[in-house]
Write a structure and sequence with these properties.
The structure is a single chain. With 460 residues, this protein is of the alpha/beta class. The protein folds into two domains: 233 residues, 3-Layer(aba) Sandwich (Rossmann fold), CATH 3.40.50; 166 residues, Rossmann fold. Helices cover 42% and strands 13% of the residues. The chain contains 16 helices and 15 strands. The strands form three sheets. A seven-stranded parallel sheet has the order 3-2-1-4-5-8-9. Strands 12-11-10-13-14-15 form a six-stranded parallel sheet, sandwiched between helices. Helix 10 crosses helix 14 and helix 12 packs across helix 15. The protein starts with 5 loop residues before the first strand and ends in an 8-residue tail after the last helix. Bound molecules: uridine-5'-diphosphate. Uridine-5'-diphosphate binds next to helix 1, helix 11 and helix 12. One of its GO terms (molecular function) is quercetin 3-O-glucosyltransferase activity. It holds the Pfam family UDPGT. Its EC number is 2.4.1.-.
Length: 460
């Protein structure tokens, strides 16, 4: 008798990786009643998500979902600091200990009669495919950024690094890559424009990404990659990604409450939204990592107050000190430390999202039909903003000054542009497309099932 399908879903311990991994886990369980899933991230992140205690979950009641951490070789996980050497050391420990520990986990699951039949891993785990292959288990990369970024990285690591390197200080230079429209250097993922020097803080992310593409090249006949996007959103790019078996299965969304690294604010922000007119509120969040300097936070709040519109703004606990005196000047807004973002974006009162354009945030906004003001900073965010503004026309990118600060006047200008312009209509149209893609028989639903049935040539 062949074993039940059992997916080991592995993820790097960042909120923006954990959320789509958990959502995928739920989708896999929902798509096949006999499927098993083991969700695994590092021990420190696991403890934060599922604090110990009598009620600590170890999986779903019916036993189909198990939550089992792997070791990154540290007690505490990465402790954010400006120490470049400490970050490099963490990444090195993560790779060495992670590969060993995940190997032991796969072996232990097999030993207790719950063998893994497919390893699914998010980016930054370039060793996962080798660990799986060594044990005869197939694997798939779960790409949690746009297909456009996958394509850019693919071409960069397959013969096009030189042109990017030659022009990386020229933001408006247009790079032509196969299957993609001409793209300005300023829209490229920052890890290939800013982090190729060993002295850059994120250099180890650049080398990890390079190692990931090397690992994909070792897969035969072709690496399988499931992508958190949908065919309708990125059709031409997806069509040009022939080097891999690529299945767009997103955008993944939460199914009810979701464990994460951050504690929800107790403030009654949903009740606050309930009292506001339809499409009147500006929602503002820069995700789980970006920290705003005091000057930036002051300018942002000044711009939001100046817009005269009600606003709900997330300022994380670790960024609260920078809010200090500015909080006293807040009249039209509400500030929370962390909210249920998808619930907020789904609320009828929300009319626009000022976002750093992390891929999860962008996908959640598209799925909820909310137009965006994009303030991208690093990684894939600039390319995500390009998709939002130029490809889907569901938002506008705000310009920052030469000092890197987004000024109050620009906040006001872009919020008005997005609240009153065509972006809202386009966002409503895209929402419909996404609902269809995710629904029964839609492209993403079809592709997820094709992935689960291993008929990857049947991609839509
Ligand atoms: N998020 C949330 N509550 C908040 C702020 C953010 O739930 O108050 C979630 C958001 O819904 C998204 C994730 O945090 O799923 C942020 O991921 P993204 O890729 O947008 O950005 P990152 O944090 O990785 O920079």
């Amino acid at each position: 008798m062949s074993p039940r399908p059992h997916y080991l879903v592995l993820t790097y311990p960042l909120q923006g990786h954990i959320a789509p991994a958990l959502r995928l886990a739920r989708r896999l369980l929902a798509a096949a009643p006999d499927a098993l899933v083991t969700f695994s991230t590092t021990e420190a992140a696991h403890r934060r998500m599922f604090p110990a205690g009598p009620d600590a979950p170890d999986g779903d009641d019916d036993g189909r979902l198990e939550l089992l951490p792997f070791s990154d070789g540290t007690e505490t996980g990465y402790v954010p600091s400006s120490d470049h050497a400490a970050f490099n050391a963490y990444i090195a420990a993560f790779h060495a200990a992670g590969a060993r520990s995940v190997g032991e986990l796969v072996d232990a699951l097999a030993a207790r009669g719950r063998p893994v039949t497919r390893v699914v891993y998010t980016m930054l785990l370039p060793w996962a495919a080798d660990v799986a292959r060594d044990r005869g288990v197939p694997s798939a990369l779960y790409w949690i950024q746009p297909a456009a970024v996958l394509a850019v990285y693919y071409h960069y690591f397959h013969g096009h690094a030189g042109v990017v390197a030659d022009h990386r200080h020229d933001p408006s230079f247009l790079v032509r890559l196969p299957g993609l429209p001409p793209l300005a250097v300023r829209d490229f993922p920052s890890f290939i424009t800013d982090s190729t020097d060993p002295s850059d803080f994120f250099h180890s992310i650049y080398t990890t990404t390079r190692d990931l593409f090397d690992a994909l090249d070792r897969e035969t006949p072709k690496a399988t990659i499931i992508v958190n996007t949908c065919k309708e959103l990125e059709s031409s790019t997806l069509a040009a990604l022939g080097a891999y078996e690529v299945l767009p299965i997103g955008p993944v969304l939460p199914a009810g409450d979701e464990a994460g690294l951050f504690k929800q604010d107790d403030a009654k922000y949903i009740e606050w939204l309930d009292a506001k007119p339809a499409s009147s509120v500006v929602y503002v969040s820069f995700g789980s990592l970006a920290r705003m300097a005091k000057e930036q936070l002051d300018e942002l709040l000044k711009g939001l107050e100046g817009s005269g519109r009600p606003y709900l703004c997330v300022v994380r606990k670790d960024n609260k000190a920078e809010l200090a005196e500015a909080e006293a000047r807040i009249k039209n807004g509400m500030v929370v430390e962390w909210c249920d973002q998808v619930r907020v974006l789904s609320h009828a009162a929300v009319g626009c999202f000022v976002t750093h354009c992390g891929w999860n945030s962008a996908m959640e906004a598209v799925a909820c039909g909310v137009p965006m003001v994009c303030v991208p900073q690093m990684s894939d965010q600039r390319m995500n903003a390009w998709l939002v503004e130029c490809e889907w026309r569901v938002g506008a990118r705000a310009e920052v000054g030469s000092d890197g600060v987004l000024r109050a006047a620009e906040v006001r200008r872009r919020v008005e542009e997005v609240m009153q312009g065509d972006a809202r209509g386009a966002a409503a149209d895209w929402k419909r497309e996404v609902v269809e893609a995710l629904g029964k028989g839609g492209s993403s639903d079809h592709n997820l099932r094709a992935f689960m049935e291993c008929i990857t040539s049947d991609v839509q």
